[in-house]
Model the fold of this input.
Amino acid sequence: MARDILKTLQAEHDTLRELFAELKATTDRAVKKRGTLLEQIEANLVPHAKWEEQVFYPAFLERADRDGQQTYAEAVAEHHAVENSVIPEVHEAEPDTPEFAGRTKVFGELIDHHATEEEKTMFKMARKMFSAAERAQLDEEYETWKQSADAANLVAGEKAKANIKGAAKSLLQ
Ligand SMILES: [Fe+2]
Ligand SMILES: [Fe+2]
Done:
């Protein structure tokens, strides 16, 4: 089967959905499991989202018509909401609390909504904008980038940001 960036991104959405389902099934006592799952979610989500923002979305926008431009704007706004509001609030909650359960549930619901919009609208448009050869090439570039130091640093950077927030919070308690 020919490689296709849209199939890869969709498969990554499914991985995230599975991880969120596992997280939702945990109890307040499953502190370690919650921590591990949240780390796994972020390790999967951050490279996916950053590559979309830096490569896929701009390539999409270049060829988009009016509807495509709006689809692009919606997707970017959702990324920003998750990065700047939802994820920081998750990190401010202790993993053994109902707050953590509630905030990670919202996190998962937003990701599912966003991923479904991409699959049903943006990727559908992209399938017409990009030839099979272009989609295969994007897929190869994405795989190479994911294995690069840049991608690893990005995940480490997000983790560091979360740790700083956690530390600041414990100072305030
Ligand atoms: Fe996205
Ligand atoms: Fe996506």
Summary: The chain has a mean pLDDT of 93. Residues 49, 52, 75, 79, 114, 118 surround fe (ii) ion (ligand 1) (CB under 6 Å). The CA atoms of residues 53 and 76 lie 7 Å apart. DSSP finds six helices and no strands in the chain.
